[in-house]
Amino acid sequence: MLERLNQAMDHIDAHLDAHLGEPVDVAELARIAVTSEYHFRRLFSALAGMPLSEYVRRRRLTVAGAEVLAGERTLLEVAVRYGYASGEAFARAFRSMHGVGPGEARRTGAALQSQPRMSFRLIIEGSSSMQYKVVQKEEFRVVGRKARVPLVHEGMNPAIGEFIRGIAPETIGRITALSDQEPRGIVAVSDDLDPSRAEGTEFDYYHGVVTGAEAPEAPEGLDALAVPAGTWAVFENSGPFPQALQHLWRDVFTQWFPSNPYRSRPGPEILRVRPSQDGTHADAELWIPVERTAV
Asked: pTM of the entire structure?
C-alpha cells in the first residue's frame, strides 16, 4: 500500500504544471494507489497531516518559487504555467506561502519557503497492539440532537462542548431511553465531513443513540440519521481525554488501514466514550465504516 502511495506522489510531482492549476485528478491518484477516491483522501490527510489539495498547492508554489528566482521566464509566464489566471492572483498566493511577492523575491533574491516532496514509509515499533473487531450491522438510525460544527484536530472542541451543554437533562434522558443496540448509550456521531478533513471545515455532529431502523420518525424535537447496512471496524482505546481519542483516529488510518485488507467507505463515524470521574481519562470505542479490498 505504501509503495503505491509513493507512486501517486511521483505522479503529482510529474504533473505540477501539466494541468495548469486544475484540481488534481484524484481519480487517477486513487487508481495508482489501487483504492477509492474517498479512502485516498482520508489516508493522505492522516499520513501527511494536511489535505491533498493543500499539499498540491504548496508543491506548485515551491516549484514556481524556484522559477521566479531563476529569472528565465516572466512572472506572468510563471503564473500561467502553474495555473493562475492573472499576475495578481499569483502574487497573492505566492505571498501567502512565501511571505514576499514574486517581484520582490526576484529583485532581492529573497529566501523562500519550501514544501518538500512527500514520501511515505512504515515504521514498525512493535510496542503496542491495536484492539479491533469487524462487524456486520443491519440498517439503523442515529437519533438525538444535531449541530453543524467546525473540525478540531487537537484538544477540546468548544463548539461541541457548548452544544452539549445546551441540551436539557430531560432531553438527554429521552434520547438515552431510545438506545436498543450496540454501541449502546449516548454516542458522538460525525457525518458529512469535508473530504479534506482540514482543520476548521464543518461537519454534522450528533449527540444521540443508535436505535432500530423500523421506527417511523424521530420523536418530536429530535434529529435522526438513517444509516444503511454495512461493515464496520470497531476499535477500542483507553487514555488521556481527549488526546488519546483524537490520536485513535490518526492511528487507525496511519497504522491499521495500511496493514489490513480494508478501506474506509462513506458513512458516519461513531464514538462511544466513557470518561473517568474527573474527566481526564476515558475508555472509548470507535466505529469506522469500511469495505474489504481485493487481496
From this structure: 0.73
